Request: fold
Amino acid sequence: MKHISIHWFRKGLRLHDNPALLAAMTDCHKLYPIFILDPWFPKNMRVSVNRWRFLVESLRDLDESLQKLNSRVIAENNGKVPLTYVRLQTLLAALGPPKRPMPAPTLENLKDCCTPCKDNHDAEYGIPTLEELGQDPEQAGPRLYPGGESEALCRLDLHMNRTAWVCNFQKPQTEPNSLSPSTTVLSPYIKFGCLSVRTFWWRLAEIYQGRKHSSPPVSLHGQLLWREFFYTAGAGIPNFNKMEGNPVCVQVDWDDNPEHLRAWSEGRTGYPFIDAIMTQLRTEGWIHHLARHAVACFLTRGDLWISWEQGQKVFEELLLDADWSLNAGNWQWLSASAFFHQFFRVYSPVAFGKKTDRGGEYIKKYLPCLQKFPAEYIYEPWKAPRSVQEQAGCVIGRDYPKPIVVHEVVSKRNVERMKAAYTRRSASTTAQLEGGGGKKGARRKTPAGPSVAELLTKKPKTKSS
DNA sequence: AAAAGCGTTGAGACG
DNA sequence: GCGTCTCAACGCTTT
Reply:
């Protein structure tokens, strides 16, 4: 019989070697792990702040360990973080769809409840202005994506009314350099929680219902699953926003080059496609996902050989939708440090943008100094004859920078450096395995009994006839 | 064409 | 005959 268990942590603030906890978990369908802070205790016992601190830290650690056990995706995968999207999809299929969103509160919910305000509320506790926050509103770019739940729900409606577009949506087919966004730009609203992911997910599910529609990873549902993918990784992988101490991250000998880093972040690399994207990022706070690919590859493994952690900081500062796990995860992806390993596939800062914007309209929008360049040279203005440059009113090296690196040269060298980093990695993991112990008894055999993690992760085997 | 790693699969060893 | 483990081969990877 399945039952409900309460495990009362008194002493024994640990998971390991805790028979009572294991017993409590066995065959139960609900478990309440509790600790009682007796109010009598602080009143009647004198205990130093140091020991209080020790207790609080122990409880916090216990709480984190228990939560980790309960993180369902990871638990579903036998405690291992899923490292591929396909793997995550299988796990999610077993977990089922997310819960339905809650309805917004109405007046009815507030019937017997008042929200008291003091007379000086607005002056003392009102929402501060940008000036009061030490920011200069003059520095802000065009207000393309106003904040707030109301705007989020409008924007959601706007896009969800495009039934065919929603059903046919395939992310790689959308354009990184269209003059207005080719995707929903709901990400800032999701990042701030102005839009509930569950609300978005179920709206899509309703639209998909009974219609032919695209699928993950490229569909709109698929985009939300990417978020789950990186959230899961961020929750389960230590030091996820760093290279050092991050077990899934290839250790690369990135260069330290403050000048190149600044040129990249300020949009002065001399590659118009890259500089236009970085300008859009700085002024508008949002760029298309594939545009992020292009500039991230350029900064790291493609051209400048600068650490993805530096790029991560710049995105963290400038993106409206900067989100810890997604930012760290995607930077690792694009730098071929984790998740993505085909480092020999390098984005061309010239060819990539041309595919969807032959005439370079996007470049001209964000880099007005190149406006008069003929389309032929807009992606590589340094190749234009001097006379063409002068006619365009923009001489390369004077009015717009020369390329800070030669892509064809550095990208080849970087692929080799990447290869070397991967070789070092596989060499070190082999060494780890071989150095792990003697030949006999070196392998870890199954422990005597089920562990806490196993008890929580083990699924009853369902055999349908 | 060929680079890399993850995860699955199937074969075989082992107890 | 069965479960468990290991290994190599193979397909896949959001352009």
About this structure: Chain A has 21 helices and two strands.
